[in-house]
Amino acid sequence: MPTTLRTSTDLSTVATRIWTPKRVLITRAAAGLEHTGEIIRRCEAAGVTDIQLLPGDRLTGLRGESERQTYALAKSSLAVVAAPPSALKPQPIPPSADWRIDLARGCPAHCQYCYLAGSLGGPPITRVYANLDDVLAGIGTHAGRGSVTSGTVERGHEGTTFELSCYTDPLGIEHLTGSLSAAINRAGRGEYGDRVQLRFTTKFDDVAGLLDLPHGRRTRARFSVNAAEVANRFEGGTARMPARLAALRAMAEAGYRVGLTIAPIMPVPGWQEAYGELLDDAAAAVAGVDDLDLTVELITHRFTPASRDVLLQWYPGTRLEMDPDQRAEKRSKFGGVKYVYPREAMTGMRQFFDTELARRLPAARILYWT
Ligand code: SF4
Description:
By secondary structure, the chain is an alpha/beta fold. It contains eleven helices and 19 strands.
């Protein structure tokens, strides 16, 4: 995946990791849509020269001669499509938010534990939805409804929450799409009332285009962070940890509500020290910010049989532990299996984060542990 690596003394406004697709594919259904024009303009400005209008709505040319080639082709391509009606209806997304709104599906980064593996079928291309008005309409129709934050004692003050990063990293593609800023703008200007809150999480740092938006504190920008050893080893194509924390600070200083998504937590050797350092770095990043509203979400590593199969195809040499024998089985209410850490390990990690967050980062409010 070609990326631009820049260095700067001011990481708060200059991104360190920018994805540039090798090619952009536009389906027929997307071609005539207004937002597609904005996406083409942004892609051209980013230096993309291979922009193809497809004759139909099927994405073609995604398969290479091997799984490896297919992966590389897909991860270096951006598809501009019209979201089908089935993708437009907001779905509940506990424990993060009342509803899920998908601006895109897929992500250009290369995390070896990617939570999208196994839930999105086919080659891992990023599909951005060009019928943006239809996608965002769900915010208007579902404001005031929901059971994760709306009307609850613990999180009712957040209003009706809409998660924008369930199936993508919206900041990682924002310079090419403008979809995230459009959503932030509309919510911030009160288009959906004053009781909605957008949420997204990211492993990228290109926040410069978001800082001056009229966000009205109706968006919470969370940064997905991890112990440096885990991030450096397993999170290819993403911004490094100091850059993510600098971006978190920049967003908090711009008045956004912010958050840390600490995920996926892994009990790697020396994990207490490693995660302790992460919490100290996060505390330093938000020190002295006025009106700081900081949340923390704590998510331990897990995998399913399907995600394990896909990840082992994508990253055959991975050193990521995905051994069912070392895990406990957790069954969903629909009968699906997830492999999580055994109870004792989970309890130890949870106690650590409860204690150390209170001690090292007391400004943070824990939303959930899973
Ligand atoms: S940034 Fe998130 S969505 Fe993208 S590859 Fe990594 S885990 Fe997957």
